[in-house]
Amino acid sequence: MALPADSLAFALLVAAEILARVDGGESLSEAISVLGDTPEACRAEAREIAYGSLRAYGRSEYFLQRLLHRPLPDRQVEALLRAALYRLDTEPATAYVVVDQAVEAVAALAGAFRGLANAVLRNFVRQRNALTAALDGDEVVRSQHPRWWLARLRRAYPERWQEIVAAGNSRPPMTLRINRRRVVLAAYLERLQAAGYPARQVGPDALLLATPVPVALLPGFADGDVSVQDAGAQRAAAILAPCAGERVLDCCAAPGGKTAHLLEVADIELLAVDIDPARAALVRNNLDRLGLSAAVVVDDCRTPERWWDRRPFDVILADVPCSASGVVRRFPDVKYLRRESDIRRFARQQAGILDRLWPILRPGGRLLYATCSLFPEENDAQIDAFVVRQHDVIRGFEERLLPGAEHDGFFYALLHKAV
Asked: Which residue, 105, 148, 209, 323, could crosslink 340 as a Cys pair with Cβ 3.0–4.6 Å?
């Protein structure tokens, strides 16, 4: 059965494929690639359903377990029902349309489950209030975060963990970074207002949009006047404050937001290193759009003997791999894919990166350690251990940003190398 490309049924079908791929272990950034082969008419809706379903960790699964007598043998059909339950849960006023379109989508995917889908979804509509009230007794479903994650947040932030959880379940803000080499912030703000996109300044180069806008509609985006980058992520360039002529290394650089920002604020010689060829290509693409230039190398930053030319760096940005617990509202699949044991693995990897980069920083130079994690093992505890291992570290400015209305969660530690 062919579904109209602009129908809710088609959007549910596409969202279900994304959810099923994440269930199978793919990251959301990989799974979302299916949208590239999807008619434009349904992309935005399919994306919203997929992201929303993942952000509401455990909620649709909770409903489905109570509406089914036994687990479904078909992962795609289960994912489609989860997507439909998310839509019914968040937009109950459209229940009739959602049920009708979801049943059509199931029929197109696996006709044998059409009757079951119809019964499950109609039962949810009838029992919604009771089911919603019942889930309040399940902390994981109510908070929409894994149990181990909640325990770590409680230990680290006993007074603010609930605030952090609420932020993680919210839709992320959309913040722009003006390219100061091309435009002035005040002038660009006027361009946004004239285009009907109200915004306000939240940083030296940062403008927070009142509501998200497709990037193609942003004035001057294609010409490199502006980029999309969280205000918290923009703090890296402000803290490092590179000076003209400095030799800068950006490790784990992809997709290139911080790379570009460093180049926008000063005339520097920059080398960007990333281990992933596809993601390194994103760095090059971003630089090309912005009219910026840097050397981009595909390699492991822990093996500088393969790519370092033996000239010490004045500045190093170590934007290390981490749990991404501070940006989970942007990458909600992390709540499904991450395991508690991963935190220790990330901590070992981060320590290895610091130890290998420190020798190639010149005496008197500075290194900025950055994560988008909320967990202490990846942040201040990592720095505590590093200064014990290295005798010539001078601990400098540190900043912990918790996710909120204006930015995501980040940790920054500026380290100086003794002369």
From this structure: 148
